[in-house]
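Thought: the user asked what Rab-GAP TBC domain-containing protein looks like in 3D. I have the sequence; next I should run the structure tool and report back without guessing.
Action: structure_tool
Action Input:
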Amino acid sequence: MYDDSSAVSQVPTALVRIGKENITVDFNSAKLKAMLRRYYSYPVEHRKQIWSYLLQLPNNTEAFKHLLSKSQLPQAQRLVEQKRCKRRIIPIINALIQWHAPLINCDWLPTFVQKLDTLFPHDEIFVFEVTLTFLTNYFGEWLSDVPGPPPEIMARIDAIFTNYDPMLRDGLGSGLAAWPAYRSCFAELLYDRSWLEMMDVIFSSSPQFLEFLVVAWLISNSRQLRIDHQTFHKTMRPIDMASVVKIAQKIVAFTPSTLFAHTWFHPLQSGNYPIIEASADSVALRTLQSDQDKLLILQQQLKDERAKADAAELTQKRRNETFNAISDLVQSRGNEERIETAKAAGELNILMRRLRLEGKRLKQSEERAFLDSWRHEWDKGVDMSLTSLPFKADDEDDEMVNRQAIQMQSLSNLRQSDLMLRDSRRVSISRAKHARGEIDAHIHKTQIHNEINALNDNPDLLLKVGKL
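Observation:
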């Protein structure tokens, strides 16, 4: 487990600053091994400093910036979105794919990176170099053949499993039962805290110890696997880290030497990151994947253009329908207004005719009333020239009669002059009334003419008059 090939056995003694207070602590291989044997994990608050010391991370800032500066691949974003991971890890995934192109097909990679990013946020280069160290050491035998599964590795794990617990291995019925746990290094199976504790053990052990941990994981969950091994790896589960490590150590002791790979841990070098050549199959797979991505992008572009064309056609159709509806509405309203105007004009003509007839009737009534009044006044007067009074033939009365006759004649003349004065006054009054009637009629006619002009200029007022 912690032999010479492991990372914890290769670390030099060094002073490491830990904590917010930057306390200097003397770290060495013995202290880390003692901590793991006792607690099976490192302290959470100091895990970043311990991992940096343990994995001997070079912090190649310039090389990392160079990878980040490359164009972002749509496949990186799609990998992150498929696993519903945080978008902030897209630059790290893109840098990993730019470093080693076959990683484009590793759908487990975003989950692995996100677990690191959750514990170590805002430190992209640390997450990148930890992931790179893991890939080059613990997946180093088959990194050129990703996404796998690698036949040699899976055959060796199956042989270790069969050698330790053949009954459980035969009960699972497949040599690939270990693949879901191995391919993502438990990132898809364990909760964050348990996974980080598992990584403490893996990073401190020899690279092949991961295979023994996978078999130990299957054995520790043998009861659930016997019930339903097909859906067992689809949900995250808790883990007893101490129990799994102890089982893995027993498996190591029980495994024959022929099944050991004897791989060593190699830290990243300062300056540049290692170059891993991809196999021909991986190159062909990436080419096919790239062609498929281009085809998908082209199909999406055509789909978007078709959708835009359909939307533009639908918009134009709606505009034409709206224009036609408005035109029909305006035309119908124009016809209605013309009909209403004609009706109002007819009703106005009838009203004017009635007004003229009413004016004539009022004028005739006034003239008739005047004539009746004149006749009545005339009838009150007495024509004394036609009146004969009785008298006696006596001589003594002749003078009196003559005087009376003279008086009566003078009264008659006075009456006649009064009547003539009244007649002249009536004539002048009649003429004045006639003149006044003509003036009123002229004024009334002028007013009616003005009202007609106003109604012709204002259709709304014309409609109101028609309603009245």
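Thought: the tool returned a structure. Summarizing for the user.
Final Answer: Structure for Rab-GAP TBC domain-containing protein predicted. The chain has two domains: 14-278, 327-467. Residues 382-393 have pLDDT under 50 and may be disordered.
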